[in-house]
Amino acid sequence: MLTVIATLIVFTVVVFVHEMGHFLVARWNGVRVEVFSIGFGPELFGFNDRYGTRWKVAALPLGGYVKFFGDADASSATTDSRDLTDEEKRVSFHHKSVWQRIAIVFAGPAANLIFAIMVFSAVYLTVGQMVTPPVVSEVMPDSAAEQAGLQSGDRIVAIDGREISRFEEIQHLVPLANGATMTLTVRRDGETLGLEVTPTIQEITDSFGETRKQAVLGITASTSEDDLIRLGPLDSVGAAFSQAYGLTEATVISIGQMISGERGTEDLGGPIRIAEMSGQVAELGVVSLILFTAFLSVNLGLINLLPIPVLDGGHLVFYGIEAVRGRPVNEQAQEYGFRLGLVIVVGLMIFVTWNDIVREVNQFLEG
Fold first, then answer.
1. What percent of the chain lies above the pLDDT cut of 70?
2. How many angstroms separate the most distant Cα atoms in the chain?
């Protein structure tokens, strides 16, 4: 029951934030919004506001949509074929300028990012941020760190020229290297050393009990120096931007590595995995669930920016071409593009769901 409740909360919040971004910018640009839906399929309940928008919750809570006046369907891929009056054209999405349409479409992913920054900032301001000094407590035998010459007590101050102030930053950067050689700048007994290290790919078990392959150095931090620090207003915002940037960087690099074949796709997860993680995070407390929702919000925004027709990124590609050419891409090309995009998205959903099922079966057999 906790998993179900947590999953519904997480999905509802991130989808609502995303669609609210589209909704607000559309309204600011004079577009009439006919439907604001959380979920797909049959309507469970809803109401009409004074502007004629139907706000509803549907049976399948795995997404949502905003339907604008002039749309032939919820995807905004095609226009209503009937002739519109001048008054109707003034409130039609497809009769707005290309830059207005770009702003409306981009507003969804942007809202997800802004929401995440606000959440991170609020948590760091009220609860605090965990800060662990980037000091090596222990070097594992026969590890990449030992081979590179790292020693207990070393302070890592930079990785490939990027300054390090927290051990958590090392945990973020090393997996992204995916086994590539890195240059560590280390302080030892008042001296600054440059050490070349090649992380090794090993199977690790994360905090959710899942086993995956990841690049590791083979060092641990001193947990005795962990500190939960409440940040001031400006520092909390700065730390929130840094956290959002780190999540964005990790997602973009990981997707790029999967496309290039440098990284496997076994870590890709779908609704089943998100539901499982939501329940596990909820057991850790409300703050953990709030932070997980912000993390998922960043990922949802970025995934929607992929240049795949039917996703926001696909719309932006078509509108970008229109802005350059001075005229829209012809409707037949757009229709074929959105059909291809739908096939890709459905195929990806099947693939990640299969990943989830295989992962669950393996965990059951190993357990």
1. 87
2. 78
Name the token pair of 306. 């992929």
What is the DSSP-derived secondary structure letter of residue 51? T
Distance CA 213, CA 124 (A): 31
Annotated active-site residue 19? The verdict is yes
Q: Are 346 and 308 in contact (CB under 8 A)?
A: no
According to DSSP, residue 229 is labeled E
Question: Binning pLDDT at 50, 70 and 90, where does residue 266 land?
Answer: low
pLDDT level of residue 102 (50, 70, 90 thresholds) = very high
197: nearest Cα among 262, 134, 163, 150 = 150
Is-contact 272 355, C-beta < 8 A? no
| Per-residue confidence band for 31, with pLDDT thresholds at 50, 70 and 90 | very high
The catalytic residue among 19, 43, 169, 203 is 19
What is each CA distance from 25 to 87, 93, 106, 184, 298, in whole angstroms?
A: 20, 11, 9, 45, 19
From the list 299, 278, 291, 284, the residue with the least C-alpha distance to 120 is 291
| CA 43/CA 264 separation, integer angstroms | 39
User: Token digits for 215?
Assistant: 């690049």
Please tell me the distance from the alpha carbon of residue 99 to that of residue 328, in angstroms, as a whole number.
12
Q: How far apart are CA 32 and CA 275, in angstroms?
A: 34
Whole-angstrom CA distances from 311 to 74, 101, 108, 335 are 12, 14, 11, 14
10 Å CB burial of residue 201 (0-12, 13-18, 19+) is middle
Judge residue 227's burial from the number of C-beta atoms within 10 Å of its C-beta, 0-12 exposed, 13-18 middle, 19 or more buried: exposed
* Dihedral sign from CA coordinates of 158, 294, 60, 30: negative
Q: ∠224-230-232 over CA atoms, to 5°?
A: 145
Considering Cα of 63, then 67, then 68, then 70, what sign does the dihedral take?
A: positive
Alpha carbons within 13 angstroms on the beta-carbon side of residue 198 total: 2
- Rounded Cα distance, 27 and 317, in Å: 23
Q: Which two tokens stand for residue 171?
A: 């945990």
